[in-house]
Give the backbone structure.
Amino acid sequence: MSKTKAVKTPKQAARELADIINETKEMKLYKKAMEELQADKKAQELIRQFQETRETVITLQRSGIDAGESMDKLNSLQGEIGKVTAIQDLTKHQANIQKMTQDLAIEISQKINFEFSVPQSGGGGCC
């Protein structure tokens, strides 16, 4: 007696793959890092200040006003943010997730002999 595989639609298979990815060590570490970042009051305050300062710089630049002082503050805040352990951890785990999904996209592309995704600068892409 032969067993036949249940035929799945691509959407069903994609949902299963998403469930599998969601259970990986990499995703669990990413989620934990995100929770730790959200609980880090210092990091949250630095992020808030950075976002406000970035908006100020953009507004000043669009208005044709010298944004030098605000840009210096933005650069300083960016340096401070880069030193926060919770942010470093999140960035590291996010890069691991991106690498994993890029590897999966390459594997799928090779299997179907069709470019599944186009890598985009700065991360992103289909996955």
About this structure: Residues 123-127 have pLDDT under 50 and may be disordered. DSSP finds five helices and no strands in the chain.
